[in-house]
Structure formats: C-alpha cells, structure tokens
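FORM 7B: Structural annotation worksheet

SECTION A. Query
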Amino acid sequence: MSEQAALREAERVVRVIAETAVANEGYFCELDSAAGDGDFGYSLARGFGQLLDTWDELDYADVSGLLKSCALVISSRVGGTSGPIWGTAFLRASIALGDRPEPSAVDVGEALEAAVAGIKQRGNSDLGDKTLLDALIPAAASFSAEAAAGKPAAEALAAAAQTARAAAEATKGMLALRGRASYTGERSRDSVDAGAIAVAVMFEAVNEGGPE
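SECTION B. Predicted structure
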C-alpha cells in the first residue's frame, strides 16, 4: 500500500468511527442508562460530531499526524471521562506509528495495543472491570495475532470485529468496578457495558465499510 493509499484508508477508518458514534447516539445512551447516567452516547456523538464538522481544518501529512489531530479534537470536545480516554487512545496510537507513512498490519496491531495501554493508564482500569477495555483488549489482541501470523489487515480486522462483539456481549453478568455503573453494585450485572458495545459496533462498522 502506498503512502497516500495508507492515509486515505486511515481517513476512512476514522470517519467511519466518528459517523458510527453519531449514528448510534440514542442506542449508546439507552445502553448506558441501564446502569450509568445515560449520557455516554451524547458525549461520544458530540465529540465525534465536532471532529466531522472540523474535518477540513485538521492539519496532518501522514497517518500518525491524522491520529494526533483527531486526539486533540476528541480530548477537548468529548464530554465526561470519555474525552480523555478516547483522546488518549488516538494519541497513543499516533505515537506508536511514529514516522511510518505506510503502516503494515503488524504496525496497526501495535498502534491498537498502544491505545489499549493508554486507556488502561488513563482510566486506571483493566480487563474485567466492565469497561470498553473488555471488548478492546481482546479485539486488539486478536488483530495483532492475525497480523503476526501474516494475515492481511482486512482479515485481521474481520477477526477483531467478531472478537469485539463476543467480548462485549459477555460483559452482561459482570460486576462493574469502574465508572458510574460501579455505584449500582450487583445491579450492574444485569446489562452489557455501553462502552464495550460501542467498541464492538465501531469495529463492525469499520469492517463492513460504514456505520449501521
């Protein structure tokens, strides 16, 4: 893949993620209202909507620069705890890619793992806390494993999307240990985690070419 083709693909991926957040605002709020404060979808839609609105003003020359520019917008525009978490994810991915203008599937896997590490640190959370990490960690690991085995990015993405969905659905029954949902105690077991489902929906949308 040429440098320009890699940049165009990265633009597509980011725009699909943003469009998916906006399109699913009501759905994500509904999921969050089961155990949280119900504004998760609104926060995501507001921030990613702003990213789409200011897309033509972003200043970048390569994939890493694109992700860094997105991180700055997301950090300042996404409300609540989501802004710092998603902003950190994009920034860490940007740093991981560095000056590689034509990232390979392995490089993308490393960027995903870097995003995971950033979210862990920023949110002081990990696998099993019933957060978006419960979908993102398995999905990133799946993508990296497929890439390391020599699979093309498209196949690695398809596998990651399946993994993300299964892991997100498995958050039902888990006890929330972080965020607003953790205040509800045992009641948090009755529903899936909104952030984990959002990750799954985004992976699926990127894999399928656009938001639901």
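SECTION C. Observations
DSSP finds nine helices and no strands in the chain. The CA atoms of residues 74 and 87 lie 5 Å apart.

SECTION D. Sign-off
Analyst initials: ____
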